[in-house]
Structure formats: C-alpha cells, structure tokens
Amino acid sequence: MRVIITSDLHITGPEDPLYLSLLKLITERVHSGDILVLAGDVFDFFVGNKELLTSRYRKFIEVLAAADQRGVKIHYIEGNHDFHLTRAFSKIPGLQIHPADVSFDLAGKRFYVAHGDLVDPKDYGYKALRGFFRSPVMKALVSVLPGNWLDWVGNTSSAASRKKSPRSPLSLPTDQITRLRTLYRNHAVEKLNLGNDFVVMGHCHDLDEMSFRIGDRFGQYINVGYPRAHGSFLSWSKEDEKIQRERMP
After folding, report:
1. HSE (CB half, 13 Å, CA atoms) of 223?
2. Does any domain span residue 69?
3. Please, what is the end-to-end C-alpha distance for the chain in angstroms?
4. What distances in angstroms separate CA 106 from CA 35, 55, 193, one per listed residue?
5. What does pTM read for this prediction?
6. What is the pLDDT of residues 64-108, one digit of tens each?
7. For site-directed labelling of 188, which of 29, 54, 181, 220 has its Cα 20 to 30 A away?
C-alpha cells in the first residue's frame, strides 16, 4: 500500500510531455490498494463538464477509471485552475472530489493534503475571487457557456496570470520567500497539532519541506513543488518514515 500525491502540473493539453508522464505514472506506478491524491492545478484549465475538455483529456479520465477498477482509492482536490469537476468525473464511482482538502488514514498514519490556496488568511482579494468562481451562480454560468468560449477565457486568464506572477517562488525577493514559507510551515504545524502525521500542500510551487517533533510524535510538512520544473511527485509506503520525492516517469 502506497500513497501517491501530485499537484500543480498545469498541463496545457494532450501533447504536453507532462501529461504523458502523468498517464504513465498512474498506469504503471499506482497499484491496487494504493491511494492516489491529485491535489489541484493538475491542468492549467479544466472547469466544469464541457465536452471540449472531457474529450481533450479523455485518456486521463480513462486511465483514472481503470485505476479505480483495479482498486486504487482516488482523491481529486480542486485547485484554482481546475474546479466544478464533480460531473466531469461522475462515471468513476470511487473517485472523490474535494473542494479544498482531504484527510485519510493508512497503516496507522494520518495524512492531511490540501491544494494550499487558502493558507494565507490575509489574502482577502483571492478569497473573494475564489468564492465567486466557486459560487452556484458561476457554476450555473459555466454550465451554459459554450465550451470553446470558456476555454478561451480560461487560457487567456492563465496566460495573464503567468505574466503577472512567476511560477517559481525562487524568483521572488528573499523577504517574500521567507513570508511564504513561514505561512505554509505555520499552517502545517497547526494541522500536525490536530493529530496529523503528514501535511502535504501545493499551490505555491515551493519545493519546501520540514520535519517536526510534536510531543513524542514525528511530523512532516512537504510541498509538492512545481513538477514542470522539479520533475517529481510524492510517495509514501508503510516502510517509509517520511514522504519521499520520486522522479516523474
């Protein structure tokens, strides 16, 4: 039994080499009894149940369905680039969609996994925007908009976001990196103090991790990072003391 976690691949289309790596990872490295967590922003844009998008990523849906059939437990945490996904994956009975985070137990250990976009309590602008995009009104609007128009808006917004904010936090000023890591590590400590043994987050693309001693317990925080740059995913088995980084296939 293993836990496999990935996020923030920001796949741009079926020709993206990272898309092919993800399909290979799920097909060849995830087995019966494993837990697969897709922790948000798997795609640069995948919103709703539009035929344009489900057709574009049909192979991904088929690979997840096959994993479900062979006994893999699948959790998909929605990110800020992929949400309103319940109907898109409704034909995979064992797949669970989560709006922000998920907790689960395996082999006597407690895992907490979140996309990580809600870590900063003072990011009021983002929280308001997130609330709007996740609202029933927006969900209804997404359902009636033409798929090609929605796709254009999503990809245009993603391109603008890339120009405005660097995908790698290492290009930020030192004080901003320090603030970012402090936020995520403090949030991780809060979750570890609630009884979790492992806290995993994404979103900020920071290849950060830290171990903690909480009473007589060991705790670990680890960020998935940015697979496009770092080329890795996370794994854990009951023989491992810590969550490990492995190379994408």
Report:
1. 26
2. yes
3. 19
4. 9, 34, 18
5. 0.94
6. 999 999 999 999 999 999 999 999 999 999 999 999 999 999 999
7. 29
Classify residue 209: in a domain, yes or no.
Answer: no
What is the distance, to the nearest Å, from the Cα of residue 225 to the centroid of all Cα atoms in its chain?
10
CATH number at residue 81: 3.60.21
State the burial class of residue 177 (Cβ atoms within 10 Å of its Cβ: 0-12, 13-18, 19+).
middle
Of 18 and 146, the one with more pLDDT:
18
Give residue 49's pLDDT band: very low, low, confident or very high (50, 70, 90).
Answer: very high
What residues make up the domain containing 118? Answer: 2-166+223-247
CA distance 234 to 161: 26
14 domain-assigned:
yes
For the chain, what is the domain count?
A: 1
Q: Considering only CA atoms, which of 92, 37, 91, 86 is closest in space to residue 68?
A: 92
Q: Which of 5, 22, 4 is nearest to 13 (CA)?
A: 22
